[in-house]
Design brief:
Elements: E1 3-5, H1 8-16, E2 45-49, H2 50-59, H3 62-65, E3 71-76, E4 84-88, E5 92-102, E6 105-112, E7 115-127, E8 130-133, E9 136-140, H4 152-158, E10 160-164, E11 169-172, E12 178-179, E13 186-189, E14 202-208, E15 211-220, E16 223-234, E17 240-254
Parallel strand pairs: 1-5
Antiparallel strand pairs: 2-3, 2-9, 3-4, 4-5, 5-6, 6-7, 7-8, 8-9, 10-11, 10-17, 11-12, 13-14, 14-15, 15-16, 16-17
């Protein structure tokens, strides 16, 4: 579950890390003289880390893709007074940040009570679909998050029409609706695999959004299989620590 972390030290630690997270070369910049603009932020949108995006497209495995980034997802609002959301490894969401700037010069700031206090990094516009935060490139994706459900894999991996082995039509929609899949009406692919029992790719399926169950899935190019989950190892309290592919429920072929 993604948690909102409101500690400034959390952001400082995250974005000061080496490697994949944005660099902090200019983090000593003071925000006392920074004024938040009134015009909409032109780089507003939902941005996925390029390494994660490329891994999903090539490997079709969210579990593998999660290992490619630290700050995996950035949501920049159009209103400069609203907090920008940084999602760390799809395990924690950090919201006490702001984006300021104009033209093609923008900055990411730590914030306190809605005011910028310390500059974290510069943001460069590479093109209309890519920005660079520090040393990390992010790609704009056409997704509409719903609360803590970011609708990323729905858009990047599942969305489309499929055929069953008997010729039945299935459609996975980008907002998490599914048609033709038996009693299932909603789906939500898992983004976070840092907990026990998540050693294979999984998708939640259900008749309604409040009663969904985990199933295993496997993509092979345009072929998608959905399986029951089998518990392989349990701890002393009976909780499943390791899962395996169970009975095949659906074998689908993507048509578009």
């Amino acid at each position: 579950m993604i948690r909102n972390i409101l500690l400034l030290l959390g952001i400082s630690f995250l974005l000061a890390c080496k490697g994949d997270s944005p660099s902090s070369e200019e983090s000593s910049t003071d925000g006392a003289d920074v004024t938040l603009g009134k015009a909409p932020i032109p780089i507003a949108g939902n941005w996925i880390h390029e390494a994660y995006y490329n891994s999903i497209k090539s490997n079709q495995s969210p579990r593998r893709a999660q290992k490619t980034c630290e700050v995996c997802f950035v949501r920049i609002p159009a209103n400069p007074k609203e907090s920008t959301t940084l999602v760390y490894n799809f395990h924690e969401a950090m919201e006490n940040t702001l984006v300021t700037g104009q033209n093609d010069q923008f900055q990411l700031w730590e914030s306190d009570e809605g005011k910028p206090v310390k500059m974290i990094d510069s943001i460069k516009i590479k093109n209309k679909n890519k920005i660079i935060i520090g040393d990390n490139t992010f790609i704009n994706i056409n997704t509409s998050p719903d609360g803590t459900s970011f609708k990323i894999l729905e858009q990047l991996l599942f969305k489309g029409t499929y055929l069953t082995e008997n010729g039945g039509a299935i459609e996975f929609k980008k907002q998490g609706d599914v048609t033709g899949l038996g009693d299932f009406k909603y789906y939500e692919p898992m983004l976070d695999y840092n907990d026990a029992g998540r050693n294979i790719d999984q998708v939640m399926l259900g008749k309604n959004k409040n009663d969904m169950k985990a199933y295993a899935f496997k993509f092979n190019k345009k072929n998608l299989q959905i399986f029951e989950l089998a518990c392989k190892t349990k701890d002393n309290s009976g909780d499943c620590m390791e899962v395996a592919f169970g009975k095949v429920l659906y074998t689908l072929k993507k048509t578009n």
